[in-house]
Amino acid sequence: MKVAGNIISRLQKIEKVEKVERFRLSLQLIGLAIFIYFGSQSTFYVVLLSVPVALLFGPVYCGWMCPRGMFQNIIGSMGKRVLGKRYNKLIPKRIHKPLLYFRYVVLLFLLTALVLYELQLIDDSLMESVVIDGLLVIMVVSILLSFFVDRAACRYFCKEGAAASLTNLVKIRKIKRDASLCNSCGICDRVCPMWIDVSKKDVVRDTACISCMKCVQKCPVDALRVE
Q1: Integer angstrom CA distances of residue 115 from 69, 120, 121, 131, 160
Q2: How far is Cα 192 from Cα 178, in angstroms, rounded to an integer?
Q3: pLDDT in tens, 102-117
Q4: CA proximity to 146, closest of 66, 200, 204
Q5: Among 148, 161, 162, 196, which one is most buried in terms of CB atoms within 10 A?
């Protein structure tokens, strides 16, 4: 009877995860519709409007509504099928951590360009050809990289994600791990798209976290909670 109960509980959890993922996809499609209708600047305003929620839960826009995340998930799923165990092996972990700071370099580059533009130290043509086109190329290439690396754009290149990630330092509700329930299975580490070692933390405060909550969803013993 206990085995049957465990199976039923597991199936219910899988069904719940599937419902959450359908909800996530719906939000991402809404984000895509906003982007198409209002243009590239819409991302900035949506991120700005999500700040109150981000102060509570962290960068939820990144994990739940960003259309680029949706495209990365689609391309990444293809990469997993083609590459199998070789997926996510392109960038070693020793290089991964320094590369996490590159998105802040991209953000700083954009902010510097905007200041110089407002001071009329660079003209429209330079702003468009170097800054706008350059950032567009970086983002397209990084999304395509998700065929080899999970959420490559989010990890290393996204300027909006870089700004939003700072809310992880001040967010009120955090992902906490109950060590008494944790069985060290490592599932949370494997499902984390940002390569955070969740199983080694009591509280997830990492700026790389995109508040996707996949670690919480997939934990088989409910050792992870948002508190």
Answers
A1: 29, 9, 9, 12, 17
A2: 18
A3: 999 998 988 888 888 8
A4: 66
A5: 161
Residue 103: both structure tokens together: 């998105």
Instruction: Give the Cα separation of 164 and 184 in Å (integer).
Output: 30
pLDDT tens, 21-50?
A: 888 989 888 888 888 877 766 666 777 777
120/34 Cα distance (integer angstroms): 31
Q: Tell me if 196 sits within 8 A of 208, measured CB to CB.
A: yes
| CA neighbours closer than 13 Å in the CB half-sphere of residue 93 | 4
Amino acid at 185: C
Contacts of 83 (CB under 8 A, 6+ apart): 89, 148
Q: Which of 221, 99, 204, 79 is nearest to 162 (CA)?
A: 99
Report the distance separating Cα 159 and Cα 156, nearest Å: 9
- CA-CA distance, 153 to 156, in Å (whole number)? 6
Q: What is the pTM of this model?
A: 0.82
Torsion of CA 208, 103, 58, 227, to 10 degrees: 10
Of the candidates 105, 96, 219, 208, the one whose C-alpha atom is nearest the C-alpha of residue 148 is 96
140: enclosing H helix or E strand: helix 133-145
Determine the distance from the C-alpha atom of residue 13 to the mean position of all C-alpha atoms in its chain, rounded to a whole number. 23
Tens digits of residue pLDDT in 56-97: 999 998 999 898 899 999 999 999 999 998 999 888 888 998
